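A reminder from the course coordinator: this example appears on the midterm review sheet, so study it carefully.

Given structure:
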């Protein structure tokens, strides 16, 4: 006697590939998360520079010369764009995660961006003062 096979119930399977491409909010979220990889990569570039500095003046000079190549400059421009996008979107998300305040969310984002710009200029002025 042959065993009868029961029909398997047809269940819904949600497609997983490309789920984030259908919604513009998900696309911007995934781009923000991908931009964090540029932050990690740039931190690794700086870490390699620190290691080269520890290895001696010749190794550090070679690393600095490598940063002057067209590929490295293109990488830095791309990294600057992605890090700027990451920072901008981070300051846009920040007010949404805070408890309700009497201050509009746009003011919080603007204050964060202004503080970042001021601190960047102060760091640049301090660096110039140290190198002078």
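Designed residues:
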């Amino acid at each position: 006697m042959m065993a009868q096979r029961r029909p398997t119930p047809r269940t819904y399977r949600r497609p997983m590939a490309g789920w984030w491409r259908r919604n513009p909010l998900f696309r911007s979220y995934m781009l923000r998360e991908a931009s964090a990889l540029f932050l990690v990569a740039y931190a690794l570039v700086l870490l390699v520079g620190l290691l080269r500095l520890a290895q001696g003046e010749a190794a550090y000079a070679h690393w600095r010369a490598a940063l002057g190549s067209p590929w490295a400059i293109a990488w830095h421009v791309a990294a600057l764009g992605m890090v700027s996008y990451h920072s901008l979107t981070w300051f846009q998300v920040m007010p949404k995660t805070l408890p309700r305040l009497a201050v509009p969310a746009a003011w919080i984002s603007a204050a964060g961006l202004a503080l970042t710009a001021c601190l960047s200029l102060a760091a640049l002025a301090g660096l110039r003062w140290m190198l002078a």
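The chain has one domain: 25-126. Residues 88 and 113 are 7 Å apart (CA to CA).
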